[in-house]
From TrEMBL:
GO terms for molecular function: S-adenosylmethionine-dependent methyltransferase activity. TPR repeats lie at residues 351-384. Residues 1-269 form the CheR-type methyltransferase domain. PANTHER family: CHEMOTAXIS PROTEIN METHYLTRANSFERASE. One of its GO terms (biological process) is methylation. Its EC number is 2.1.1.-. It comes from Paludisphaera borealis. InterPro entries: Bact_Chemotaxis_MeTrfase (IPR050903), CheR_C (IPR022642), CheR_MeTrfase (IPR000780), SAM-dependent_MTases_sf (IPR029063), TPR-like_helical_dom_sf (IPR011990), TPR_rpt (IPR019734). This is Putative biofilm formation methyltransferase WspC. It comes from the Bacteria. The keyword Hydrolase does not apply. Keywords: Methyltransferase, S-adenosyl-L-methionine, TPR repeat, Transferase. Residues 399-424 are annotated as: Disordered.
Length: 424
């Protein structure tokens, strides 16, 4: 790496905390070439000098590097958990203070607007919820405030649901004003120790698909920020591939819901309040994709247990795999793998067990073993969306855009097929 590129890399690493092995070796050089062309410079050293002396150019370079893809109700399960949590702990407790939710990073607004829709569907009026959305990218925040999205950001959603929450716009589809006004956007960096320092702690924080891209030191800083911003009985929702090893938040947190939601609460603090039973005479169903994703009204205790969301044919493996996940979340990777291996010896290989082993290996830094497990998982279940998404991220880190795109397309199809089958 040349001196100029190394200097730029150091500036971006210090500002964003990126792990070069996670983002791929070609991302920063491509961003630099794009900005050099934009400012009319052909000499790398001259451009490095510009970056060192111009905060505005640093921000422009950040805009080139931080271009996340997202879409509404991504992964579905975290939003289902949010609905159930809001319904159980706020909707039926009208005297409780307004729920406070943070989305960081919020990218182009798809996640915080999805949160706003979920809380509206949970029956919470605007004065009973506060949604803050933070991102390092000024450009993405400007787009988020407009609330205009391409149809690709709404992929998988049924036409009637789109018609309810969006209006036609010359540049695409715009979220309705009633939802847009619920979200408060601001620029900020999760590595800033003073970020949102004057804000009341949040009841729910969405921080998904960020930790995986950070180096170890920055990951610890981000975890400290999340720990500071989260209320004592708050819930932290992370991405499926975000590492929660001993250097981040795992020692302090335990799963607060089914593993697919990746929702965690503090281990030693007050537990999430128990839901107040609600008569299920007319169960309301939140259906962003035109099928029954999310039940706001839970069945009474005497009712049969609901079918698991992921891979119903592997329901009997869940208790052991949940124990494995619990070990992994506490940084006990060896014990977690032992649980998975014991389950495989007892019942034979399953996509769920192998995918979880992949996540565990990934958290422990064993990337080759993780990739192998994810491939085995999709061999057993070609429609295992979590394994497909994990392989897409691995391919992206290697700079293999073609493979990453292929895995993402397969994951999207798997999610759509899952929705269609649940509707039948």
């Amino acid at each position: 790496m040349s001196g100029g590129l190394a200097a730029i890399d150091a500036i971006l690493t210090g500002r964003l905390g990126l792990d070069p092995s996670a983002i791929g070796s070609g991302l920063i050089p491509r961003a630099v070439r794009s900005r050099m062309k934009a400012v009319g410079l052909h000499d790398l050293e001259a451009y490095a000098a510009l970056v060192r002396g111009s905060e505005a150019e640093v921000q422009e370079l950040i805009e080139e590097v931080v271009v996340p893809e997202s879409w509404f109700f991504r992964d579905v399960l975290p939003f289902r958990f949010l609905l159930q949590h809001a319904r159980s702990c706020w909707t039926v407790r009208p005297k409780r203070a307004a729920i406070r939710v943070l989305s960081i990073p919020c990218a182009g607004g798809e996640e915080p607007y999805s949160i706003a829709v979920a809380l509206d569907e949970a029956g919470l009026p605007p004065d009973r919820c506060r949604i803050d959305a933070v991102d390092v990218s000024a450009h993405r925040l400007a787009l988020a405030r407009q609330g205009v999205f391409s149809r690709n950001a709404l992929r998988g959603m049924s036409p009637d649901v789109v018609a309810r929450w969006f209006r036609e716009h010359p540049q695409g589809l715009q979220i309705v004003d009633a939802i847009r006004r619920r979200v408060h956007f601001q620029q900020g960096n999760i590595l800033d120790s003073r970020l949102l320092a004057d804000e009341t702690p949040y009841d729910v924080i969405f921080c998904r698909n960020l930790l995986i891209y950070l180096n170890a030191g920055s990951r610890a800083e981000a975890a400290a920020t999340l720990d500071r911003l989260l209320a004592a009985d708050g819930v932290l929702i992370v991405g499926h591939a975000d590492p929660l090893g001993p250097s981040t938040v795992a020692p302090k947190f335990v799963l607060a819901a089914e593993p697919g939601a990746f929702a965690y609460r503090r281990r030693t603090e007050t537990a999430i309040p128990s839901p107040i039973p609600i008569a299920p005479a007319k169960p309301f169903v939140f259906t962003p994709f035109g099928h029954q994703d999310v039940h706001l009204v839970e069945e009474p205790e005497s009712a049969p247990a609901a079918a698991p969301v992921h891979h119903p044919d592997e329901a009997d493996a869940r208790p052991m795999l949940e124990e494995a996940a619990e070990h992994a979340n506490q940084g006990r990777h060896g014990q977690a793998l032992a649980c998975c291996e014991a389950e495989i010896r007892r019942k034979g290989p399953s996509a769920a067990a192998l995918a979880l082993m992949g996540v565990i290996h990934q958290a422990a830094g064993r990337r080759a073993q993780a990739e192998s497990c994810f491939h085995k998982a999709i061999y057993l279940d070609p429609h295992h969306d979590e394994a497909l998404l994990a392989l897409a991220l691995i391919a992206e880190r290697r700079g293999d855009r073609s493979a990453a795109s292929g895995f993402r397309r397969r994951a999207d199809r798997a999610l759509k097929n899952k929705g269609a089958s649940s509707h039948e």
